[in-house]
Amino acid sequence: MHCLVASLTRATCLQARAILHFDCGRRMMLPRPRTPEPPTHGVTSMHELVALPSRAQQAASLFARHGVAVFDGVLPADLCAALASELAINGSRQRDVVNGKLRSDTVGDPNDASLRWNSAQSPARGLVGAVLRHVAQHLGAFLVAALGAGAEEVQLLECGSIVSYPGAPAQTWCAAPPPPYQHALLSPRLTAQADCAWQACRLGFTQLV
Amino acid sequence: MLQLQLVDMDSTIGPIEVRPFVPLDTEQVDLPMLLKAGSIVAYDSKVWHRGGANVGNTPRPVLYTTWMAADDGLLPRNMGYTIAHAEMGAWTLARLQEREGEPVSPRHVGAASGLQSVPIEIEVAPAFSVS
User: Fold this and answer.
1) E strand or H helix at A194, and its extent?
2) pLDDT of residue A121
3) Is the ipTM of this complex over 0.90?
4) Model's pTM, two decimal places?
5) How far apart are CA A90 and CA B44, in angstroms?
6) Do both A2 and A70 map to the same domain?
7) Containing structural domain, residue A89
8) Considering CB atoms only, which of A82, A110, A136 is closest to B120?
9) Residue in A27, A120, A162 nearest the CB of B64
10) What single-letter DSSP state applies at residue A33?
């Protein structure tokens, strides 16, 4: 079972205006409600999404409108190369341990060739820690602006790696369900079936009890 | 989500593809992020996205991070399995910013000694309640 099951009461959910949804990793999130900023135009090129870390508000506005912002050349090349090397080496070993299937990432699926790691990627240590310090330094202002919270409130929830090997097919498109969010009561039996729960969430049923 | 590109992304190794939000009367397009190593793609989890097919000869390693505001304590603390349980909720942006300038240990650079293979653990979190 790869999904997490929430037990929010309907009253609590409404009162808190909390919205549960599953992200692509079938994990639940409670996103801070933010004022939507409608997109102003269609995006046809990646270059329209490029933002400067030094102009955090502009980047956050771009992100709010289109849901995507791209920052070029934030991390040092040598640091990237070193971490990429580590991940490829260790990931290759793990692929054999898993089962050698060349599949793309499905987040935590033990039969997956693209792997996400756990304690090896502590923000406190090593290359990952160094990378995160760069992110915090250069994109901290963007994160604060985009999330509408102070640096003390912005939390790092996940820090993982994905290694996609030659031969891996494209992933399935995924996204958290868009509003309006619906709430449905699903039986525990149903939630025990990850695929069913996932499909339910994809359809917008966002509360599992 | 911030996806950190660790290698140069060309179309053969399956870069992340996104469908940015567009106005209702505008056609949505799939955009592969053909970026240089060191670039970062920030995307809302509500944006349709996927990793492309890797039809090249080399692996495509990326690092991804998820950030969220604390949101009045409603944030579930038991959802992560990419950060050690003891560290869940412990890493704020402010804390990371305080660590700026700390040197990277030499043993973590270059040689394949910094990260160790660890078994994949799928942690099924118990139901949590918000009250």
Assistant:
1) helix A194-202
2) 55
3) no
4) 0.71
5) 29
6) no
7) 34-185
8) A110
9) A162
10) P
